[in-house]
Design goal:
alpha+beta, Multidrug-efflux Transporter Regulator, Chain: A, Domain 2, Multidrug-efflux Transporter 1 Regulator Bmrr, Chain A, 3 domains, four-stranded antiparallel β-sheet, 9 strands, elongated
Amino acid sequence: MNLTQHGLLTIGAFAQAAQLSNKALRIYSELGLLVPSYIDPETGYRYYHANQLQQARLIRLLRQIDMPLITIRQVLVATPADAEPIVRDYWRTKEAHMTQARQMVQHVIAYIRQEATMTFDVSARTIATQPILSITKRVTLDQLIPHFVASLKTLYATVAAQGGIVIGVPFGIFHGSVNEEDDGPYELCVRLGGALATDGEVSHASLPPHKLLQ
């Protein structure tokens, strides 16, 4: 096949023109976001058409604002008129989460400064089996803080509705990798003073006996 005649580019040439890595192109192909125009049946080499560059560059721009791939898919299949509000809605949500994150950072800094001025005698004690409530979701890195904030509100509301008591600080368990491409899952947990009823997305479990530094 005459690649030039058919307007086809090798994956390397296409990646360079679109300013995307070969690895990213393979991921987008597997997810159906940007599929090669032609795959050589003998060599397996992937080729892209030059007219796919516009879509590839759009994907790159959307990833630069940390848009999740599932949202990017919605943008790609939408008409321009429908795609614009998707992007605007995403960014409004992103800004709200960034505001929450900035507030959390200030709390963390204040906590660190407070601890820096205090001294503690550290000891360990054994904690018996302890009930917990948790919410587990599959989240990518950009979704982690929103999931943490929303799930923590749900957990505390569940405890309060039943007159329960939360002991200590919340903690999370990563059941898999959480990054820009991998989505965990991630489990957010709170320790309880006693067992409570659960339903929906909230689960009940028990921590085995463990040591706690204090």
